[in-house]
Amino acid sequence: PTRSVVIPLLKNNLLLSVIGLAIDASDNIFLSTSRYAVGPGLMQKYAPGSTTGVNTGLTPDIEGGFDSAGNMYVGFSNSVCVYAPGGTHCARRITKGLSSVTPFAVAPDGTLFVPDGSHYSNGEPQNGDVTEFAPGGSSPVAKFSSSSFVDPEGAALGFLP
Question: C-alpha angle 99/82/50, rounded to 5°?
């Protein structure tokens, strides 16, 4: 690893979990944590070379990532919020076609690939899907389904040089 980040625990913390992580084009790390039972959760920003985070004031949840314009995409239970660079309020909310957002992927042009993690019947996982949104769009442009997508819990993009 090139950098380690220490997550401070609260006194009598019952459960701490990392719920989101994203790195912007300037190599800042954005880390969301949940502190179940003693709250509050935090989204912290770690500057390059720093091991100490600064609270962003943003609601912590599932970071999808950043597009090349610097917009940050954060997933909540049934929506994705787009924050403008440096913004502290949701500039655009995407809800159509989403019911249970899990960790998702953001392409440099702003294309989103969002898995739906709500596919259960009688407690058993069922075939899920991944929904694609065009850059700047708020309505799905494609839905990918397969018998191998059993309760998808995340998406990632890989780019070859």
Answer: 115
Residues 6+ apart with CB under 8 A from 9: 16
Provide the residue type at 11 as one letter: K
Burial class of residue 2 (count of CB atoms within 10 Å of its CB; 0-12, 13-18, 19+): exposed
Q: What is the per-residue pLDDT across 117-147, written as a single tens digit (0 to 9) for each?
A: 766 666 666 667 888 999 999 999 998 877 7
DSSP of 10-42, one letter per residue?
A: PTT--EEEEEEEEE-TT--EEEEEEEETT---E
Would you say 142 and 132 are in contact if contact means Cβ atoms under 8 Å apart? yes
Reported pTM: 0.81
Q: How far apart are CA 99 and CA 126, in angstroms?
A: 15
What distances in angstroms separate CA 118 from CA 54, 56, 97, one per listed residue? 33, 29, 12
How many whole angstroms separate alpha carbon 4 and alpha carbon 36? 23
**Strand-pair partners of 32:** 20, 43
- Alpha carbon distance 32, 14 (integer Å): 17
Pull the structure tokens for residue 149.
């997508």
